[in-house]
Write a structure and sequence with these properties.
With 160 residues, this protein is mainly α. It contains 4 helices and 4 strands. The chain has a two-stranded antiparallel sheet.
Length: 160
């Protein structure tokens, strides 16, 4: 098997890295890792987790924390590793964390959330400014001629 995202190749039978021209038992006995294998394993350990049911590495790049293993179809929570139930994000310690990064997962996740919050504030200020302009411009177009007419009539009354 080959991962669509990172192109890492796996053995379908033993779920370990691909071992051409060797049986799974031979590969386990002579497990001498190449540099590419070590780099791939490190990358998986940083960004991936093992499925709690079958042990296949799964990488999560985006989306919610409800994971379905592509190998065994086991459904589990990315945050706590427990089996997923329909009420998991309402009743457990992962309450409310279905679509967010857990605060202790990665520092980058917290930074992203902060940037998102500030972006939302800037967006709100921009939209608020546009709404204010949308109200002020028509109001000025209507009220300024009326006020100008009033002032002009006052001047004409004083001249008489």
């Amino acid at each position: 098997m080959s991962c669509e995202k990172c192109s890492t190749q796996f053995c379908f039978n033993c779920r370990d890295f691909w071992h051409p021209d060797k049986t799974c038992q031979q590969a386990q006995k002579k497990k001498k890792k190449s540099r590419n294998d070590i780099k791939s394993e490190k990358r998986q350990l940083r960004s991936g987790k093992k499925c709690p049911c079958c042990g296949v590495y799964i990488n999560k790049f985006e989306g919610c924390n409800h994971i379905t293993c592509t190998y065994c179809k086991f459904e589990w929570c990315w945050i706590c590793g427990q089996e997923f139930r329909p009420d998991h994000y309402f009743e457990t310690k992962c309450k409310g964390l279905q679509f967010t990064n857990h605060p202790r997962l990665k520092r980058a996740g917290r930074t992203t959330l902060k940037v998102g919050k500030y972006s939302l504030i800037a967006f709100g200020i921009g939209v608020g400014g546009l709404i204010a302009l949308a109200i002020l411009i028509p109001a000025a177009c209507i009220s300024l001629p009326i006020y100008g007419g009033y002032k002009l009539s006052e001047r004409l009354k004083k001249k008489k």
